[in-house]
Amino acid sequence: MRGNRKAYLDVSVSVCPHCGALYADASWYVITLGSDVECGTCGNDFNPKKSLSDRVLIQFDVDENGKVSAVRIADVLL
Ligand SMILES: [Zn+2]
Question: Which of 8, 54, 58, 74 is least enclosed by beta carbons within 10 angstroms?
Answer without folding.
Answer: 8
